[in-house]
Amino acid sequence: MRVAIFAHRFLPETGGIEVTADVLARGFTTRHGAEVLVVTRNPAPAEFDATLPYRVLREPSPGELLAAVRGADVVFHNNALMQFAWAHLVVPRPWVVTMRAVLRVPGIPLSRRRKAVLHVKQRLIRRATVLAANSEMMSADIGGGAVVVHNSYRDHIFRTETRVEDRDRRRVAYIGRLSPDKGIDVLLRAVAGVGERGVPLHLDLVGSGEEETRLRTLATELGLRGRVEFHGALTGPQVNTVLNRAAVAVLPSVGLETFGTVVLEAQAAGCAVVASRIGGIPEALNGTGVLVEPGDVAALTEALHALATDDAAFAAAHRGREENVSAHRTEVMVDRYWELVQQAHRDGRVMVRR
């Protein structure tokens, strides 16, 4: 079967949507023998694409986009991509849409133009042959009724290489963008709070973003010089190394996360996880780890202190970790989405002019 995967952003960028598109493209190709073409708006060197086991079309012209749709048996939107959807009207094909980002961020007012765009996008995704979402929370955001397929983690990269009992429980890691919605300032204040209780923690921050300068300043103001290490952006294997040095990984988000794949990567690498009770994160943890309210410095401080000093609390945070990781292996997600691609192909419904 020929599958065109539409992805607004793609490798070599390393966000969740970008990585998931690669996982699906590889899985469809290697596990199910599909002929895959990834179509994306962001550029990359040709030599990078030559290393991939599938074809990539970047920054397509209108003619190239139409040819990509014409050559596909099924079109797969890895998050709804309006800029490419017009091609379905010209060259009708069965199409699958999986939603991975909320349509509207709560609390942010919409302009008249943005409201119109949102209305069009909502109608657009409802015309997909098959509509999926990466969490129950994401399905509810688009009005319900989507097939829920949880994200997987990259099990060929993230694994436990250092025994849990050999790790320093005072070593904590954060993996992700350095942006305001991630709540890293809350984490820094919590690390300082644990230190004030006589337990100095070491924090590894992996990622880049617009908050880096402010966070460096805040770390200094909180007296954390030498106890917070900014690693910048790292490759997957390098991230796995950082996680294997840590005993605890934290996702302190204050903004909506539709799933939170990083908590699975951290668990796969052997970390106990502390994360915000927001969006789809509780679904990703599925009763494992420790959940705290977003933005609650005191609660995060208490959780980190307990994991560093209380054997029972540390053991409880690991309970069910391996089972949760196993349930989110790459093949589980790939095979479920392949079933949806086959369903769309059998159904045959296409987008038509109305």
UniProtKB/TrEMBL annotation:
InterPro entries: Glycosyltransferase_grp1. Transmembrane segments: none annotated. Pfam families: Glyco_trans_1_4. Keywords: Glycosyltransferase, Transferase. Gene3D superfamilies: Glycogen Phosphorylase B (3.40.50.2000). SUPFAM superfamilies: UDP-Glycosyltransferase/glycogen phosphorylase. The keyword Glycosyltransferase applies. Coiled coil: none annotated. GO terms for molecular function: hexosyltransferase activity. It comes from the Bacteria. This is D-inositol 3-phosphate glycosyltransferase. It comes from Micrococcus luteus (strain ATCC 4698 / DSM 20030 / JCM 1464 / CCM 169 / CCUG 5858 / IAM 1056 / NBRC 3333 / NCIMB 9278 / NCTC 2665 / VKM Ac-2230) (Micrococcus lysodeikticus).
